[in-house]
């Protein structure tokens, strides 16, 4: 269990330092058997200590810690309930991803790492945060997604490790950033579906993906 709490603490700092969240925004969690550990409500993620992660029973949603869990608790629970393979959930508010998706556009593949590593991205229209409504919308697509872009809100990523979910978050935001900049420069060329499939089948990319699961 200590390892999970250490990983959560490490990547909560990374989320802040990389600019994926600001202030008390964003939340993350990891599964441990029939429980999950989630960031506490109202905390700057960079300041959460190992003993402040909130323990919650996944099936019942019962909170087993003194601190209040993130207001997006139901969204995290829905992810774990829908897919047993999901071991970590990250939710952030990355600038370029929010900007691009709020125009109604999708974030296209423009460089190899994005389609090779993030194989399935879903989009959901704006829903009021912290409600059962957004948890339900996420639950409808999370089993088939590695990243979920919430228009006018943020991005949610899932993985078999916290590191994997964080990597998906980084790549999604970088893809949105490249796209936004390219639109300002000229008419961007996106990778074709065949080119994306070829990238996903490269042995080097398969190996890199496997490292994120350890």
Helicity level: 40-55%
DSSP, total strands: 7
Radius of gyration using CA atoms only: 17 Å
N- to C-terminal separation? 15 Å
The main β sheet shows up as: 7 strands, mixed
Q: What spatial order of strands do you see in the largest sheet? A: 3-2-1-4-7-6-5
Order of helices and strands: HEEEHEHHEHEEHHH
What does this protein structure show overall?
This protein has 214 residues and is α+β, with helices and mostly antiparallel strands. Helices cover 42% and strands 15% of the residues. It has eight helices and seven strands; from the N terminus they run H-E-E-E-H-E-H-H-E-H-E-E-H-H-H. It has helices at residues 2-17, 73-82, 95-101, 113-117, 132-141, 162-185, 193-200, 203-211, and strands spanning 27-32, 35-38, 54-57, 88-92, 121-124, 147-150, 154-159. Strand 5, helix 5 and strand 6 form a beta-alpha-beta unit.
Question: SSE layout and pairings?
Answer:
Elements: H1 2-17, E1 27-32, E2 35-38, E3 54-57, H2 73-82, E4 88-92, H3 95-101, H4 113-117, E5 121-124, H5 132-141, E6 147-150, E7 154-159, H6 162-185, H7 193-200, H8 203-211
Parallel strand pairs: 5-6
Antiparallel strand pairs: 1-2, 1-4, 2-3, 4-7, 6-7
Can I get a quick summary?
The chain has 214 residues and is of the alpha+beta class. It has helices at residues 2-17, 73-82, 95-101, 113-117, 132-141, 162-185, 193-200, 203-211; strands spanning 27-32, 35-38, 54-57, 88-92, 121-124, 147-150, 154-159. The radius of gyration is 17 Å and the shape is globular.
């Amino acid at each position: 269990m200590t390892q999970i709490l250490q990983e959560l603490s490490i990547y909560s700092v990374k989320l802040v330092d990389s600019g994926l969240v600001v202030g008390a925004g964003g939340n993350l969690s990891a599964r441990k058997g029939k429980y999950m550990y989630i960031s506490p409500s109202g905390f700057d993620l960079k300041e959460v200590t190992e003993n402040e992660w909130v323990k919650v029973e996944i099936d019942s949603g019962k909170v087993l810690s003194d601190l209040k869990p993130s207001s997006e608790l139901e969204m995290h629970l829905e992810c774990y309930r829908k897919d047993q393979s999901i071991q970590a959930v990250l939710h952030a508010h990355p600038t370029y991803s929010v900007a691009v998706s709020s125009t109604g556009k999708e974030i296209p593949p423009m460089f190899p790492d994005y389609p090779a590593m993030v194989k399935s991205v879903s989009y959901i229209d704006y829903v009021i945060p912290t409600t059962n409504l957004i948890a339900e919308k996420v639950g409808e697509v999370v089993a088939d997604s590695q990243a979920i872009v919430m228009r006018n809100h943020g991005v949610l990523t899932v993985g078999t490790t916290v590191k994997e979910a964080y990597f998906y978050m980084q790549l999604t935001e970088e893809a949105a950033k490249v796209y936004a900049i390219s639109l300002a420069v000229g008419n961007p060329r996106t990778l074709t579906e065949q080119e994306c499939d070829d990238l996903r089948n490269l042995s080097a990319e398969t190996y890199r993906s496997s490292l994120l699961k350890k």
